[in-house]
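Task card 7
Instruction: Convert sequence to structure tokens.
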Amino acid sequence: MEYGDSLDRALDAVPDIGSAGDRLSVPDAVAQTDGAFTRFTNLGAVADALNRDPEHLHRFVQQTLATSGKFEDGVGRYNGGFDDRDFERVVDDYTEEYVRCSECGLPDTRLVQEDRNLMLRCDACGAFRPVTKSKRSQGTQPSKNDLEAGKTYTVKVTDTGRKGDGVAHRGEYTIFVPGASEGDVVDVYIENTSGNLAFARIA
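Output:
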């Protein structure tokens, strides 16, 4: 085989990472009140856009919002009152942990099971990491009860959410801080909490 032909075949095998960032187009989460429950009406569509099993996303929603529910016909139904923003933040957190590569930042990943551990493999850059150890569980951090709505805390922004919000972690909480950038250390006022999510503004 000629060198030129070999080079062409090699280039064809290289993932198209130049436009990969544009491939993650996720619909906004839609919440609908249903008595004492709230429906995540387009959970299935969101999971499809993320290329993930909707049941897996559903279980993550339950865990993050500390609630119970069921998934049926593309719709998640959860005990309690939630709104679009609650589900949006959960999707952001899920994307960070189970979809986006921590090395190259691209969404060209897949979940694989290896030695009983769930791993995230990136097809764009080849990175391979476990997803069972959440960032918010690493190191010695305050307990969940140490974060309360209406109080101010100093946090370090370690990530960026899907819609550009700064993301920080404290104990079991993921804190979303609009206007903050990754690497910032800021004082934030906790406006409200929902399950393991906290919504803040720069104090």
